[in-house]
Amino acid sequence: MALLLEYLPLILFFVIYKTVDIFWATGVLIVAALVQLVYYKVSQGKIEKRHWIFAGVALVLGGMTLVFHDEQFIQWKATIIYALLGSALVISQLLFKTNLVQKALMGILSSVQEEQKVTIDIPSSVFNQLLIFWAILLYGIAALNLYVAYHYSLDVWVNFKVFGLMGITFVAILLTMFKIYKYLPEEK
Q: Average of pLDDT values for 145-164?
């Protein structure tokens, strides 16, 4: 259910684009992003930074798309989001000596540690490699989104945004899991 809610604005954007047009889809995306913020505030008592960023970028670029009746603004959304994520990884490491990939993965793996009463010890060099991998990937996706947006039709871009970016992200998550798999405890 949580995964569906996470991707609901994207799913609605895609469905409305395919049934109506990009401008209706953009309006629905904005409304869905705002409703998502309200839902998280009511159900969890807080709103994660990433949800504020996604909603803010959707509101600004989506609003510009609607006001100027120009789909190029909404096409920039993925590029800005992925570039911001890549920059957050790099800046956090360089300025604050915090590996956000390590922090995220260890947060996810902490439930495994508690459940199995084990310690997961992954070398920092592995997390550093993953940080570089994810930063390059995120910047690459940002650039690829612009390439597709400016070299292909709007239909191709929408399909790429929904299925291509999701596919690339899924493969990257699998590669990340393969990288840390040998450090995970065996199931009892």
A: 97
